[in-house]
Write a structure and sequence with these properties.
about 260 residues, 3-stranded antiparallel sheet, 8 helices, 10 strands, about 15% strand
């Protein structure tokens, strides 16, 4: 696992965006680059920087296929809190990605289980995900894989905890009852199948989750801890999120990341 510590949120996002651009531009396989994407507040700065670099001609998304992590059940595309709407408003509408290359779970599907199986099959048909970017919740959940979700889980229907609905209520007029209680989400196993996983962790409120991701034992209580078992896992974080790391861990990653990468 790599832990890349940046001074602040803006520098964290710039580092992550530069890393993604380098991976897309360096892709040599005879198939599109497959990129997994999250929603939420953490990736907004990364999306803004990717848009800037795309519009500046430094990267193109014409040969990129994307798969989003999750979607609320019961929200149509046009709902301003659906993740379909979020992704188009904050990213897809501003870059040169072909519409047919965008994949987002359908929260209005008549058969959610069939929709999730279809999603897994399409990921496989595309050759798997090259890089999955993600963020985590204050309780360490990755995508909508809440605490105690199996670390081998696949894409499926997820019940959201009261805490998650409370945190997300800021987008629903501060009313947790307006937040859907169910979502469709890729599984931890789905994410772990990716060649690389890049997780963004920023802010004091994520400090415990970062510590559990890096220093804690691997446990389904903290689904983010599964990253310890991925050979291509990278955590990009800001200083504010490092408050609960031990001094030795903090110094180690600052030292090792200052060396020239092979």
């Amino acid at each position: 696992m790599r832990v890349v510590i940046q001074e602040n949120y803006e520098k964290m996002c710039k580092w992550a965006a530069d890393y993604i651009v380098a991976k897309i531009n360096g892709h040599k396989e005879d198939r599109p680059f497959v990129l997994g994407l999250p929603t939420g507040s953490s990736p907004l700065g990364v999306y803004a920087e990717l848009i800037r670099q795309n519009q500046a001609g430094k990267v193109t998304f014409k040969n990129v296929i994307t798969f989003n992590m999750d979607e609320y059940v019961g929200l149509p595309h046009e709902h301003d809190q659906s993740y379909w709407y979020f992704m188009h408003d904050n990213f897809f509408n501003h870059i040169d990605i072909p519409a047919e290359n965008i994949n987002i779970l359908n929260g209005m599907a008549e058969d959610p289980e069939e929709e999730c199986a279809r999603y897994e099959e399409k990921i496989a048909k595309c050759g798997g995900i090259d890089l999955f970017m993600g963020g985590i919740g204050v309780d360490g959940h990755l995508a909508f894989n809440e605490p105690y979700t199996s670390l081998t889980s696949r894409t499926g229907l997820r019940a959201l905890t009261s805490e998650t609905r409370l945190v997300n209520s800021r987008f629903f007029g501060n009313d947790p009852e307006k937040v859907p209680s169910l979502a469709l989400s890729v599984g931890i196993g789905t994410v772990m199948d990716s060649k690389e996983v890049l997780v963004l962790i920023n802010g004091h409120n994520k400090a415990r989750a970062l510590a559990k991701s890096v220093e804690g034992g691997v446990s389904q209580k903290w689904t983010c801890s599964a990253l310890q078992m991925h050979n291509g896992a990278i955590i990009a974080c800001d200083e504010a999120a490092c408050g609960e790391l031990t001094v030795d861990t903090y110094k180690y990653f600052l030292d090792i990341e200052s060396k020239e990468r092979l």
